[in-house]
Amino acid sequence: MKLQECAAFFLQRHKLSQLGRCRSRIAQRQGAALSMLVDQAATRKVCNALLSIIQFARPKGAGDGCD
Please, what's the b/e burial string for 25-64 (b: 16 or more CB within 10 A of its CB; e: otherwise)? Predict the structure, then answer.
């Protein structure tokens, strides 16, 4: 998957409107290396791994994990 497809998949699955905000929050929590992976995501495997990491990193009770 290209980055845009990965982002669309992510947005559709999580009903998020601003992937960039999520990415910056993830970078704050998980380090810049993960945000670089988001930028360079090229395969479904990488996309799914990022989704798993993002879901794991979401605080409990947060509506979409971004706010």
Answer: bbeeeeeeebbebbeebeeeebbeebeebbeeebeeeeee
